[in-house]
Amino acid sequence: MENGVVLFIGCIAGIVTGLIGASGVMVVVPAFVMLGYATSEAIGASLFIDTIASLVVAWTYFQNKKLNLKQGIWIAIGSVGGAQIGSLISPLIPDVGLNSAFSIFLVITAVIFWFRGVNIGVPDLNGNDGAARQSHIVKLLRSNVVVSGLLLGILVGILSGLLGAGGGVLILLILVFVMQYNMHEGIGTSTLIMAFTAASGTIGHAISSNLPFKAAIYGAIGTVIGGRFAARFANKVNEKVLSKVVGGVFAALAVTMLIAR
Which of 21, 68, 192, 220 is the most exposed place for a label (fewest CB within 10 A)? Predict the structure, then answer.
């Protein structure tokens, strides 16, 4: 029975990744915690499932020529190292503290999704009329994409190892608003980088014995099905409406996790 539930959870996580390039962590971790796994184990499983989902989705975007690692490679390198740091710290944090931190992460992610399609004083995706509104921080980051990519990648990696997320949302924001990728290339490239980050975090959790292999494998099987199907139809989805729905779901999950502990 549990294997079937985990398979379904993986499928939903794959759909989330395939449609909007986000980590399935928001689905996997709360569900695994509710199944009785420790938060650190749920995070380890989430990273493993994220790795498989991201590879499947990235391959689909690559087939449609919507993947560009020219500048994103520096984020990938930084995130791999950062994920090791985060995964080593994760087991040292009590479940209650880790659970609360994860809930806060869910709330922040929900807000990002809810307002994702809204222009809030940053350059538009095509770079039109954006120069006057660029903050000094963004200009500084764009002045040296190698250094900024590495530093931002390390930060994303640490958060990924701690919270079990591949960092897809954060990577996407960096690619679009710092590296000036268009949205399609941003999603495709962020999922590939997310695969590297999640794989690094998975190794760290496996070394720390916080990876339930059987459950993670069943979840990965489900994510292949959901991720491949969703990625094929990603361009047909109304992104603004979908972002609001997913943001609302993530916020609900955050509240559920805070109440559950």
Answer: 68
Q: Which pTM value belongs to this model?
A: 0.69
Name the one residue in this structure whose structure tokens are 């530093």.
151
Take residue 226 and report the two structure tokens written for it.
Answer: 């959901």
Residue 128: DSSP 8-state: T
Band of residue 201 on the pLDDT scale cut at 50, 70, 90? confident
Of the pLDDT bands very low, low, confident and very high (cuts 50, 70, 90), residue 177 is confident
Burial 108-140 (b: 16+ CB within 10 A, else e): ebbebbbebeeeeeebebeeeebeeebeeebee
Measured CA to CA, the distance from residue 38 to residue 125 in angstroms comes to 40
Contact 233, 89 (CB under 8 A): no
Give 108-127 as a 3 state SS string: HHHHHHHCCCCCCCCCCCCC
Range of the domain at 241: 2-260
